[in-house]
């Protein structure tokens, strides 16, 4: 589904990603861990097509297409969804209308019929229940004044509505209490299927208990320095990143 | 970064209503002197008192200087280079029905999406269409007449209802008020007169569409609306103008008078030609709008959506003379390209328990400059008077500007004035977030802007709100993609 080869990315003239390789198969769940500032969010933004991230080398192929040539909204239409580490507030924009515009924009782009107000309302109610997002949040402005956990749940609601092919979750677990973490994980698991892939960025083993990944990678110094299975996360939890970085330096 | 350019593109929408209608007009050559005024007055077959009124205003105007206190910049206006009269050819006898109206004109309205016929049938709106300086189509007169409502052109009112005109014309905005109002009093071309008799609720929303169509012809509209005791009227004013390459002066005067327990709701969508990308050729819009809540418990509400004109200079105001009277001002002003707007309101609290609400939303994009200028004056007798002002600015890009000039004068210790102001910016983060969710940049901007303006749009009558939203989208959309 997603192939990243030798990706180099500059931000403000500084090289943040330095030859990153990653392959995510259809239906797979991958987790990326790594020290603060190692470039995890940068990777997610580059995949989503945000301005200001300059790709100097390498390629990214998504579902057979050159992702780097596509506009952010085209990537969204193609099925890329990024749940952001810091979801953005849109004061004055009604959350329900935003969700509907978003869903219909994606449907339009895919040549599907738009949902009318009633059909959409039904769908949104059903999905909101799945992520236990209180209905009153649908009536408020998008993320404006939402608590940290509410924002994250709102991201998951959007994911559940858009049913993306590849979901990137950037620290979806940060700021969530234990119950909310479970709810969010259930939301993600409900969407897990042989057709969908996930890339989760996290610092904590706990998320991986709820959403079990197929592969775990360590991102450091702008590169994947180690990949493994679930046991890698346990090892990291225990020993931190120091030993990997040392081994890498020695190599 | 490329982002600035993209934002520039985004707001560089072409002017949708840029086309010119070919209608033969009788146009006065440029220039202004007493003979010009006599010509206008004679053309309209006006009684002596009207001519005297005009001449008095003209003589006073000669003593005035153009104001320069607004946050606006423009080349000096040459008042001798402007033509002060133009009328469609058939002005003399005036059409009896739409069939008699110049087909070109009907076509113009159709292009603007203002099908008179449809409006008559669907919305029940009577339209007094002002094309250049003379009214050419008036509908629904009979139905209004049944209710006792007078809805006609000012010229007609001068002949048919001289007592009402004499009593109220210039009683809210005297010719001595300001430079532009004074000019208007001298040379006003035509406009609308509305009188709602005591206790009558006007059976339909009244609407006038204005359109400047003659090159170099100043447009000097005059509107006078009187709501007698307990009467109610909602009046809609909307305008668009064709593409022009020379500056056009527009100096209108609107006077509203609400007697005891009367309510006037006045809504405007203003979309005059804003000029080309460099700001050349747009309309200079210097308007004096003022309402007098003359009676106790009277209510005047101004709602405006200002998207056009190169320059907007406009402060719809309320004089709250009657006790317990209410004044409201809801405004959205958009400037993009090189547009400049200096707009706001004045609330003069004179009577006791008078209340006013001001909600102003300024949107600046590209090189647009938007100034809110508001005055709230609590007079010595304004016991327990209240004002609440909310003044928000939204910036799109970082080359535009928003400025706020609130003036507050309180001469009564029991009066209360509240002022809130915010400035925000459509951020890269917000646009990216929306695009990540599948929205185009245009849709994202329009969604954020519409959210920002919601409080004001909610005040507009339904059909008008839809139109305003559409207009705003057209204004801010553009060359993206
Ligand atoms: N716009 C920017 N301007 C300058 N530096 C930036 C910018 N964006 C990111 N960086 C830098 O790039 C590096 C990687 O940042 P990134 O946000 O990708 O890290 P991260 O791995 O997600 O960290 P965390 O675990 O703290 O979320 C950091 O050193 C950061 O300061
Ligand atoms: Mg991060």
Average of the residue pLDDT scores of chain B: 79
Radius of gyration of chain A: 18 Å
**Biggest sheet of chain A: strands side by side, in what order?**
6-9-10-3-11-12
Radius of gyration of chain B: 22 Å
**Principal-axis shape of chain A:** globular
Catalogue the unreliable spans of chain A: none
As for the number of domains of chain A, it is 1
User: What's the count of strands of chain A?
Assistant: 12
The quaternary structure here is heterodimer
Q: How would you sum up the major sheet of chain A? A: 6 strands, mixed
Task: Estimate percent helicity of chain A.
Answer: 40-55%
Separation of termini of chain A?
Answer: 31 Å
End-to-end Cα distance of chain B: 17 Å
Describe the SSE topology.
The complex is a heterodimer of chains A (251) and B (481).
Chain A: E1 2-11, E2 14-24, E3 29-33, H1 40-48, E4 53-62, E5 65-66, H2 72-78, E6 80-83, E7 90-94, H3 95-109, H4 117-130, H5 136-139, E8 141-142, H6 148-162, E9 166-170, H7 178-191, E10 197-201, H8 205-210, E11 215-220, E12 223-228, H9 230-239, H10 242-250
Parallel strand pairs in A: 3-10, 3-11, 6-9, 9-10
Antiparallel strand pairs in A: 1-2, 1-4, 4-5, 7-8, 11-12
Helix pairs in contact in A: 4-6, 6-7
Chain B: H1 3-10, E1 25-27, H2 34-43, H3 48-61, E2 86-88, H4 103-111, H5 116-123, E3 126-131, E4 134-138, H6 141-147, E5 150-153, H7 154-160, H8 162-168, H9 179-187, E6 191-196, E7 206-211, E8 222-227, E9 232-240, E10 248-250, E11 253-258, E12 263-271, E13 283-293, E14 299-306, E15 311-314, E16 317-320, E17 326-335, E18 340-349, E19 355-365, E20 369-378, E21 386-396, E22 401-410, E23 416-425, H10 428-436, H11 441-457, H12 462-476
Parallel strand pairs in B: 3-7, 6-8, 7-9, 8-11, 9-12, 10-13, 11-13, 12-14, 13-15, 13-16, 14-17, 15-18, 16-18, 17-19, 18-20, 19-21, 20-22, 21-23
Antiparallel strand pairs in B: 1-2, 3-4, 5-6
Helix pairs in contact in B: 2-3, 3-9, 7-8, 11-12
């Amino acid at each position: 589904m997603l192939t990243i080869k030798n990706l180099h990315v500059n931000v403000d003239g500084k090289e943040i990603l330095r030859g990153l390789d990653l392959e995510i198969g259809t239906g797979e769940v991958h987790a990326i861990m790594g020290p603060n500032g190692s470039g995890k969010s940068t990777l997610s933004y580059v995949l989503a097509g945000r301005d200001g991230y300059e790709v100097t080398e390498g390629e990214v192929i998504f579902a057979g297409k050159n992702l780097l040539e596509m506009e952010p909204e085209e990537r969204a239409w193609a099925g890329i969804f990024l749940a952001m580490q810091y979801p953005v507030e849109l004061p004055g924009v009604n959350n329900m209308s935003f969700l509907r515009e978003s869903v219909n924009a994606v449907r339009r782009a895919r040549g599907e019929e738009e949902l009318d107000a009633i059909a959409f309302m039904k769908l949104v109610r059903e999905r909101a229940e799945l992520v236990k997002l209180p209905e009153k949040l649908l009536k408020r402005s998008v993320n404006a004044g939402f608590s940290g956990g509410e924002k994250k749940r709102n991201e998951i609601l959007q994911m559940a509505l858009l049913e993306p092919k590849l979901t990137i979750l950037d620290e979806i677990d940060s700021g969530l209490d234990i119950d909310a973490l479970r709810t969010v994980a259930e939301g993600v698991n409900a969407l897990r299927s042989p057709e969908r892939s996930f890339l989760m960025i996290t610092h904590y083993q706990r998320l991986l208990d709820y959403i079990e990944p197929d592969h775990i990678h360590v991102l450091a110094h702008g590169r994947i320095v180690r990949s493994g299975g679930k046991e890698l996360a346990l090892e990291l939890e225990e020993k931190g990143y120091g030993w990997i970085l040392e081994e890498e330096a020695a190599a | 970064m490329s982002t600035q350019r993209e934002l520039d593109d985004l707001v560089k929408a072409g002017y949708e209503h840029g086309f010119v209608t070919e209608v033969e007009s009788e146009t006065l050559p440029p220039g202004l002197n007493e003979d010009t005024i006599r010509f206008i007055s004679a053309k309209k077959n006006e009684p002596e008192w009207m001519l005297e009124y005009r001449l008095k205003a003209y003589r006073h105007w000669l003593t005035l200087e153009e104001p320069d206190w607004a946050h606006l910049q423009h080349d000096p206006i040459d008042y001798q280079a402007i033509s002060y009269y133009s009328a469609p050819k058939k002005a003399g006898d005036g059409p009896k029905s739409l069939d008699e109206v110049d087909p070109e004109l009907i076509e113009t309205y159709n292009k603007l999406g203002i099908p008179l016929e449809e409006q008559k049938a669907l919305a029940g709106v009577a339209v007094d269409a002002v094309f250049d300086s003379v009214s050419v189509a008036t509908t629904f007169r009979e139905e209004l007449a049944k209710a006792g409502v007078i809805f006609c052109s000012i010229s007609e009112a001068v002949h048919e209802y001289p007592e009402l005109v004499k009593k109220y014309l210039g009683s809210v905005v005297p010719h001595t008020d300001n430079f532009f109002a004074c000019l208007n009093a001298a040379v006003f071309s035509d406009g609308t007169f509305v009188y709602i008799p005591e206790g009558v609720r006007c059976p339909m929303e009244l609407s006038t569409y204005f359109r400047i169509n003659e090159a170099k012809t100043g447009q000097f509209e005059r509107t006078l609306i009187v709501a007698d005791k307990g009467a109610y009227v909602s009046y809609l004013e909307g305008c668009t103008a064709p593409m022009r390459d020379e500056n056009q002066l527009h100096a209108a005067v609107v006077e509203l008078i609400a007697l005891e327990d009367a309510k006037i709701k006045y809504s405007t969508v203003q979309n005059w030609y804003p000029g080309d990308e460099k700001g050349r050729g747009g309309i200079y819009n210097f308007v004096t709008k003022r309402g007098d809540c003359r009676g106790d418990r009277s209510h005047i509400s101004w709602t405006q959506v200002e998207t056009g004109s190169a320059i907007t200079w406009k402060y719809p105001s309320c004089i709250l003379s009657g006790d317990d009277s209410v004044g409201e001002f809801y405004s959205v002003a958009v400037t993009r390209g090189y547009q400049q707007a200096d707009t706001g309101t004045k609330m003069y609290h004179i009577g006791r328990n008078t209340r006013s609400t001001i909600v102003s939303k300024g949107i600046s994009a590209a090189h647009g400059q938007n100034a809110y200028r508001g005055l709230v004056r609590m007079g010595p007798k304004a016991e327990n008077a209240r004002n609440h002002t909310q003044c928000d600015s939204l910036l799109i890009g970082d080359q535009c500007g928003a400025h706020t000039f609130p003036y507050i004068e309180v001469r009564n210790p029991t009066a209360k004035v509240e002022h809130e102001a915010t400035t925000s910016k459509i951020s890269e983060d917000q646009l990216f977030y929306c695009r990540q969710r599948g929205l185009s940049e245009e849709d994202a901007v329009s969604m954020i802007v519409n959210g920002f303006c919601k409080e004001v749009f909610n005040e507009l009558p339904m059909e008008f709100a839809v139109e305003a939203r559409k207009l705003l989208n057209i204004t801010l959309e553009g060359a993206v993609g």
